[in-house]
Amino acid sequence: MRLIEWLYDRPAESTVAWRGSERLTIAQLRLEVAALSAWMASQTARRWALCLDDAYSFTVALLACAQTGVQAVLPGHRRPAALAELASNLDAMLVDGDWPGSAELPFPVWSWSSVMPEALGRSSTLPLARSELPLSLLMFTSGSTGLPQPVLKQERELLAEVAVQAQLWAPLMQQTLLLATVSQQHIYGLLFRILLPLHLGVPFWAATLTTPEQLCQVAQMWRQPWGLVSSPAFLEHLDPALPVANGRWLVTSGGPLSTAGATLSRGCLDLAAVELYGSSETGGIAWRQERDHDWSLLPGVALSVDAQGDWWLDSPFLPAGERWRLADRIAWQDNGFRLLGRADRIIKLAEKRISLDEVERRLQALDWVQEAVVVPLLLGRRTGLGAVVVPTPQGWQWHADLGNGRLLWRLRQELGVWLEPVALPRRLRCLNALPCNAQGKRQYAELKELFDEA
């Protein structure tokens, strides 16, 4: 089945999504997809960045790309400087409202609030001629080189995973309202917040929940069973004073679920979270429902180990005939496997994949930094980054004038145009030279000691 066929298989008055008290139907979705696809076809752009927070608007745009035969691009963020670097992969961008960074970009940025009225004024019926081209989706994720890495996902791969996930979770998801604390800009949110509910005919909440109070308010207003697509970080901040009733299903991904998150999920939501393991490149790999249990492979997925001890993935969610070498180290158990940590320099901070190489590259691009390295630090109960830099003479002058704290503030301000807030260093140390051993390799243990509290 094609992605676009979901527009035709359900009754016109069936519910797709809720935007507050507004019910959004298949009939409305058909109309808006028709209008937007006709408008897109009138533009020269063939690669569209979809930076839409509203999940229903995003769905319209994604299906319009499929209808028109243009490529959908998910940059994963909206930072102007980093988006400008992706300009060779983009022709235009759709955003929810007026966006202040549009003047800095070398491609047009279209506001949803201006495009949709114009598109609806041009077209009112679903085009009869459907595109024969499958949807092509380009995502960007951190890679071991430190540069944003393009990940091309074809419609076949996405729908293959949707079918497998539906086999596992459809009984729990039926007759629920799907809520989400994660964005559809990344593979986990795209699959579980948009594609899986569309496939199963499960309505979703258009807005992203950002606080436990919002979850409590929506659940109380809905008063019917709901499911939640969440991040571990959200679950770790649930409030025991705000118990939420009527939950039927809870899924989380993007990082390991802590003991605190698992305990709060059971106490506040009366749900045991289903954890998913995978990546943008691979799609889903495995799942578990109790954090101390082994991971179970998804149906159709297989792992094998080579003579060098590297683990290889065979999956129907990969391009046909391709295998994938895992960046994670694993230990195989009788009933599944356990994760032993990443083998490369990609780490998870607040469920976001952060490339240490990327942060270092941005640091060394600052005109007052001669050399730099970043190390993960345990700061209280959370992990953050510490930056060790060798300043230029100008940098040392600023260090003398501003002090370490204000210089760190300046560093964070300069890096903020490139990096997400979670990737910005939270500690700074300035040295005349980076510590290395006799082989010229950096001494990370010594670097971490620089941040030890006296």
Rg from C-alpha positions?
A: 23 Å
Tally the structural domains.
Answer: 3
Average pLDDT rating: 90
CATH topology of the largest domain: Rossmann fold
Summarize the amount of helix as a percent range.
25-40%
Output the CATH homologous superfamily of the largest domain. ANL, N-terminal domain
Largest beta sheet: strand ordering? 6-5-3-4-7-8
Instruction: Note the beta-strand portion.
Output: 25-35%
Describe the largest sheet: 6 strands, mixed
> From the coordinates shown, what is the CATH architecture of the largest domain?
3-Layer(aba) Sandwich
Distance between the termini: 62 Å
Number of beta strands: 25
In DSSP terms (H or I, runs of 4 or more residues), the helix count works out at 12
Give the low-pLDDT segments.
Answer: none
Structural class: alpha/beta
Task: Give a verbal description of the structure.
This protein is an alpha/beta fold and 454 residues long. It has twelve helices and 25 strands. It folds into three domains: 3-155, Rossmann fold; 209-344, ANL, N-terminal domain (Rossmann fold, 3-Layer(aba) Sandwich), CATH 3.40.50.12780; 347-449, GMP Synthetase, Chain A, domain 3. The strands form seven sheets. A six-stranded mixed β-sheet has the order 6-5-3-4-7-8. The longest helix has 23 residues, at 393-415. The protein is globular, with a radius of gyration of 23 Å. The protein starts with 14 loop residues before the first strand and ends in a 5-residue tail after the last helix. 38% of the residues are buried.
